[in-house]
Amino acid sequence: MGMQASVSVPRFHHQWLPDVIYCEEGAFKEALRAKLSAWGYTLQNRGSIGRVDAILRRPDGQLEGGATHVAMIPRQGFERLFKNQHQAPEKMKKPFIRKPSDF
Fold first, then answer.
1. For residues 64 and 31, what is the distance between their CA atoms, to the nearest angstrom?
2. What topology does CATH give the domain 3-98?
């Protein structure tokens, strides 16, 4: 799985108190939701749990980036990486990859 695919996967959050599993839409299949409910867990749907900007250093030394959609808004530093070629993740045809020498 590439970095963009990894950060695009729906997320969930659980902690001791409140004892609720917060889920983004699509985080769990219906069968798993039913099983968790049967085990006594409380599940609550919610919007985006957070923004993720991630960089993976691949075994060949190249850097592969991924970002959630909200993170695609141009910010200081972000413009420099994309050289004013801003694209939303759903429009990206291949992963954004840079070599360390590009910096």
1. 34
2. Glutamine Phosphoribosylpyrophosphate, subunit 1, domain 1 (3.60.20)
pLDDT digits (tens, 9 = 90+) for 4-49: 999 999 999 999 889 999 999 999 999 999 999 999 999 999 988 8
The CA distance from 36 to 45, in Å, is 14
In 3D, which of 93, 102, 99, 89 has the Cα closest to residue 63? 99
pLDDT tens for 86-103 read 444 454 445 556 666 665
The one-letter amino acid code at 76 reads Q
Closest C-alpha to 9, from 66, 59, 58, 65? 66
* Domain edges within the chain: 3-98
For the whole model, what pTM was predicted? 0.60
